[in-house]
Amino acid sequence: MPSPFNRRSFVQVGIRLATAALAVGMSSASRAGDDAEPPLAAYFRTETARLAAHPLLDVKTAEEWKARRPELQRRLLEMLCLDPAPERTDLRAEVRGVVERPDFVVEKIVFQSSPGLYVTGDLYRPKTVTKPLPAVLYVCGHAKVEKNGVIYGNKAHYQHHGAWFAANGYVCLVVDTLQLGEAPGLHHGTYREGMWWWYSKGYTPAGVEVWNGIRAIDYLVSRPEVDPSRLGVTGRSGGGAMSWYLGAVDDPLKVVVPVAGITDLHDHVVAGNPKVDHPHGVVEGHCDCMYFNNTYRWDHAMVAALVAPKALLVVNTDVDPIFPIAGVRRIFKNVETVYDWYGDRDRLDLLVGKGGHEDTVEIRHPSFAWFERWLKNGKGQALADVKEPDRAIPVEALKVLDPGRPLPTNVNDTVHESFAPPPSVVAPPESPSDWEALKAKWRTMLEEKVFAGWPSEQDGGRVIVHRPYVARSQDGSTEIAKGGLGVTAYDFWSDDHSELKLRIWMFATPGRNAKVVDRELVVLNADGWNRYAGLIAAFESETGDPTAHPEFEAIKRKVEGGALISLLAPRGVGPTAWPKEKDVQIRRRFALLGQTLDGMRVLDVRRASKCVQPSGEGPPLTLVGDGDAAPLALWAAVFEPEVGKVVLSNPPATVRDGPAFLNLDRVLTMPQAVALLYPRAVVIENSAPEPWAWPRALARNLGAASLWPAIEPRSRASR
Question: Helical H runs in 640-678?
């Protein structure tokens, strides 16, 4: 990955800023969704447009597309946490009951897509089957069906689809989703539960749903009533999204009809349907099951394009509040290009009905007719002949699991803990050459799978530094001096995102009259900002007295000893913080773009380190971070070799406990991340030594003269 920095690219420009302007850059008005075009909304627009500019990854020909398609499918599976895929174990399918209707039969099915991961479904088939029939997997959207505390699953709500297929000569398996199914699991880890570590593990419930769908197709083809050469998939809402994913990765499928299941990143992140809900991005209306982890930074047109050349009918309504039609049409235009490459344009169509997020006859009957056309070898019904009489079954009759016959121990409600494989167990290398090889491997994986959202310089990643001018200063100095301590503020940003300005406060002796023997950059989290905000405000206020602040004397002592002490509040901290109620959806927007908020904060620290020491001259820089700011300092140092020392206070000992970095837990552990800094000085404060056994063993193997990293019992905050 090209470096986002060029030491000669810094632009130093003097500007006049009033000292009262403490809150620069993203202020409290910076809310994704405000009409006032706040800085953060502008950031998301720019980043989304960057990905939208390459909807098919710049593929231009049929030959190139066909050559790349297998690897693109593999990448999609990886982003769904399905590469490597779970083992295709015995389904252990059971029929828990049969419902007889006048023109079809329903078998109540339960199977295990993986050991202990249960899927409940209803299989609809004609009463009499004399030859193998076409089969359709119906994947449900969220539709809670529950009475008196008894869960009947999403499948009970969508039963009319299965009934139509069975009454018209198909086998149709309608399967529950993990969320709201009879054996319920969790779809709302980031949306509702604060489980940001899902990103670090590379986990998404979409992967579980796709896996359950793949295994459901395995079950269908195991049935003697099913013709395995005539398979289709359909579903609405979340089921529409799963139809897209399954159509993209499961090539035995011949027909795909996703209903209200896709729109592009512009609609998800920036601007949904202005007439209805979520006009500033429909991500706020979707749970986590809708999304792959965007490691390779795709717009959603890529998923749609991978369905080609299957017979694909794209179905939507014109005012759907969470699948805006404008984004659907943009995606369809790209998909048309791919079908033209295959010479199969007749196998693609778009159906737009009237209304909102609804399962209407207007869109349902043409969907049935599409299957009739493409799965019955030209012998199916025309749209005008499709009829749908009432075939409703009491939901109680469709329940698969008997409350008196519970499942054996299942993992449905904890699958998010185990579905994503952990990193491979790696012993500390015993030779420098082996360590260099492992570091190179990890570095490549980090650049490609964890921090790929960092811009290159070619993408506009140059850093610009402005040095504020203090209007009340008589001598033209940009420094504020009080009580024998001076502070200078610097604003910086990248040239592609001038709307996102961050500030560094650098403390030194007034007039810089002491020899600099140490440079220290302290990375602040919310607690750190609360610790220093009063001190900064006292300096920048005309009448403020910083000498009474608890941190004043400690900083002054260091400065008088020759240190330059700088404070950085990364994006979303301190002056650039957004309202708490906006935090969840802001973090989710970053993730849709193949970034995480914490990953971009690491970039802020890297840039700040260049501002503090732009030419690499003078004493090496020390990065300091406490709590969840410690990994920000750590990762900035990994990518900035001129950082000489890192101090990690109260650091999280596991990836799961720390800030969220996309896929990090699939690459290495937190102790292994610390090891990447060897032999630079690393001090770990206020932590037991046991979690750091791996880097200590590495250092010992490589001949360290003393225990590395150093572990001290007290944090800086307690001194």
Answer: 670-675
By CB neighbour count within 10 A (0-12 exposed, 13-18 middle, 19+ buried), where does 345 fall? Answer: middle
Q: What is d(CA 227, CA 253) in angstroms, rounded to the nearest whole number?
A: 12
Rounded CA separation 141/237 (Å): 5
The residue assigned the tokens 């399954």 is 246
SS3 376: coil
Q: Where are the beta strands (DSSP E) in 44-202?
A: 94-100, 105-114, 117-125, 133-139, 146-147, 150-151, 171-175
E strand spans, 283-403: 311-317, 348-353
Give how far the C-alpha of residue 228 lies from the chain's centroid of Cα atoms, to the nearest Å. Answer: 35
**CA angle (138, 97, 172) in 5-degree steps:** 20
Residue 474, CA distances (Å) to 103, 126, 544 in order: 93, 91, 18
Interval 378-404: pLDDT, tens: 899 999 999 999 999 999 999 999 977
| Separation between Cα atoms, residue 125 and residue 133, nearest integer Å | 9
How many angstroms separate the CA atoms of 139 and 236, rounded? 8
Scan for tokens 């693109």, then name that residue.
72
Q: Which helix (H) or strand (E) holds 329?
A: helix 325-342
Going through 66-222 in order, the beta strands assigned E by DSSP cover 94-100, 105-114, 117-125, 133-139, 146-147, 150-151, 171-175
Contact 555, 522 (CB under 8 A): no
**Nearest one of 671, 615, 626 to 648, comparing CA atoms:** 626
- Would you give the distance in Å from CA 200 to the centre of its chain? 9
Q: pLDDT (tens digit, 9 = 90+) per residue, 612-670?
A: 887 767 899 999 999 999 999 999 999 999 999 999 999 999 999 989 999 999 999 99
Read off the pTM: 0.93
Closest residue by Cα to residue 603 from 37, 43, 22: 43
Alpha helices per DSSP H over 397-450: 415-418, 432-445
